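EI: anyone free to look at a 466-residue chain?
SC: sure, send it
EI:
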Amino acid sequence: MKIAIVGAGSFRFALQLIGDLAKTPSLNGSLIALMDINEERLNATYILAKRYMEELGSALKFEKTTNLEAALEGADFVINTALPFPEGHEDGFIKYDIVTQIGEKHGYYRGIDSQELNMVSTYTYVLISYYDLKLAIDIAKAMKKYAPSSWLLQTANPVFEITQLLNRLTDINVVGICHGFHGVYEVFNSLRLDPKEVDWQVAGVNHGIFLNRFLYRGKNAYPLLDEWIEKESQNWEPKNPWDLQMSPAAMDMYKFYGMLPIGDTCRNGTWKYHYNLETKKKWYGKFGGIDNEIERPKFHNQLREGKKRMLELAKEVEKDPHIKLIENWPELFSKDKFSGEQHIPFINAISGGDKVRLILNVKNNGVISGIRDDVIVEIPVWVDKTGIHPEKLEPDLTDRVKNFYLMPKILRMEWALEGFISKDIKVLEEILVRDPRTKSYEQVLAVLDEILTQPFNKELREYLNY
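SC: here you go
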């Protein structure tokens, strides 16, 4: 079997998946094609992966390339974890910060990409996710030519928009994968419930899922959450900027929607929780969540430091055969623990291994009532060698979840795809005209002009014929 990882030079993620592969006996001996346009980071991942496999006693084989077609040729599975940035592959977060600052200069707090129900905005980049969607289309075209029967596991954000676009414009096998549903385990832990005795379902769209079924030992467990809110919620404090699952914002959303938001959905509320940093701290605790002007730059620096450490460790490993990664960096190079990501269980199940329950992004096809069949939804499914089999939702999502949350989020997805497909800058203008922060049409024209005329946005300008 051949598994291609696009964006293999990413900090942490590719190596975590490789570790999961090594710990899955039925996939031992597979060929892993590592692909990245950043040759230095690609080489680091290659060196560390080979050493990691030596320590685990794994028979996985590796090849590396900066060429997409070479990586995909003959692949059975393709994992897209790449986060492309405009004009090359240097520190793209600097460009993200520049675009955010331009937005704030023109009156758009946290940038024009922070939108109602879409505060997880690092990945959208100028409203239509141009660079991400273009890469996904390029991958799909290469798969069609070099690996026509393979599966694409879409991991890089925006998962919702990309998976929808590929289902709409191509006929490749594609599934969107995200780990945001792990928030359910924080709920179980906070309520002191044994996860093995909880019967649960989540459903919605990516970064917009709700706990529709919540039973503990066969009984409705939502009264236990109500009791926690009444007696313990006032003592809640976040452990870090990402710790939002039991936040006041999440509980407030639960009271309105009738079901608890899960994972990144807690970040993706309305402007009620996001007007400014003070407001964010009120609803998300002392850090104000991760999506603000203090914590987001810190996170970017953490990623930079992580990549730097990875590069340095690879150089040391290349020189010294006695360095043990499992001892040197146990948080990343685990001997026996799995990462919790769903990619390898999916690959294993589709390939004939154990049947597995996963939370995946697939076509709705009637699972969530009132949502079009062709819309990509995030739902519980069972996967085996015969394919993907969605569970029946019991109970259905509330009308408020559908009408106040999912429908507006689906509409924003459609706007983004319309902007990308039509190449019409008027679509970007209309998206911003509808933004509550907009005070005039002139404001819209000014912010788009300053962003699009940045030197690193030459490709985007040409695409939009601006």
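EI: The longest strand covers residues 208-216.
SC: 👍
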